[in-house]
Request: fold
Amino acid sequence: MSKQQFDREAILNLSRSMAKGAPTKPAAHRGTHHAKIDRSKTDFATMDLYQQITIQRQMAEKLQTRDPYFVLHESRAGATTIVDGKELINFASYDYLGLNGLDEVHQAAKDAIDQFGTSVSGSRPTSGERPFHRTLEQQLADLYQSEAALIFVSGHATNVSTIGELLGPTDLVLFDAYSHNSVTTGCKLSGATRRAFKHNDFDDLERILEETRNAHDRVMIVVEGLYSMDGDMPDLARLVELKDRFGAWLMVDEAHSLGVLGATGKGLFEQQGVDPKKIDIWMGTMSKTMSGCGGYICGNQPLIDILKFFASGFMYSVGLSAPLSVAGSKALEIMQHEPWRVEKLQSNGRYFLKAAQAAGLDTGLSAGFCVVPVIVGDSLRAVKLSNNLMDRGIYAFPITYPAVPMNSARLRFFISATHSEEQLQQAVDITAEELRKLEDANFSIASALSNLNAD
Ligand SMILES: Cc1ncc(COP(=O)(O)O)c(C=O)c1O
Reply:
């Protein structure tokens, strides 16, 4: 049995052994007219999805680990955070340039509320738009040297609506195997033929294009500027060459690369010296570097016009609110006027990566910018490590299957320009120490399972 199969089987066994305390299914109602309807199916508590959550909670309780989800924080997301009155060094938030805590950004958002209120109270096509929408879209279009831009109220909805609307059943969408859920959900919604290519493997992409391109009308290739779980980047020039040769669109999701890559934070194209006009669809989110929330698409005018009228997540959704739009605008201005923030983030990323590698931690593919994983393999070990770090003043979230492949569970460290080198070093030292303890104790799903069975 492969290690992967073993882990999967072990989780299932553990779940079964713990399911004894799970809620039992209520007896099916036997109505005279609808005897065949199993009414227990409409009880949310009997759904497999709920059972999964229940089992996870029970496991956490039995193994005396804190449930890592929905931790209650008592302060804003910065380089530090407060949980249960205790200050922790925070590596679970993506305020990459430290703009979320800046007076200048706060003041701009407050002034915008005073003038325009907290909501625009309607969708832009029907209720109209306001100057701050156009200002932000112009700034984004300028950044990517594109003809136009469009802002959405959510980064996730931006990908879902854009991919979902542009492609149809006669088309093909090729996406990196490590793509974010918003990309894969958009691909499903589109009804196009979907193929994942191996992560950052453009020989694989080329092979699929050779085999399948001619059978489809339109083809879209989707990649990320910097991968959110692994912290590595694609080769943009190679992608441009492939998309030109095969007559495909190229869409790049810059969620984790805006403000992070390139000398002035403009992202992947600046980092790799590629003309941004060669990319058909630039996508990004405002929840990371731009210290707010929302998403954007930049490209040529026809693309933006199509999305304005047909992207359901834009057309049928409220416009971005004044404080969020203005916070985003201010963040872009500061990013461009204060390049030291980008430099500091990049030097912090390099520092953390080097220190982690020197401590013997497995940082996978990370290039050492804003995302550095510490891969521990076993899912339970990752959860336990995160717990133990929290007890020692470090907050880093565990990422487990299915968000990452089996046996590559990890703690993900988001690095910010506002972390100090002391904080980074402290996090590395404590992580290495706590991981060693778990390895020495052979703490894993398999050992937890045998301990539970022995109880
Ligand atoms: C690569 C990528 N794309 C899109 C999104 C969705 O963005 P948002 O969280 O701003 O909705 C995320 C979220 O983290 C992401 O990592």
About this structure: The longest strand covers residues 371-377.
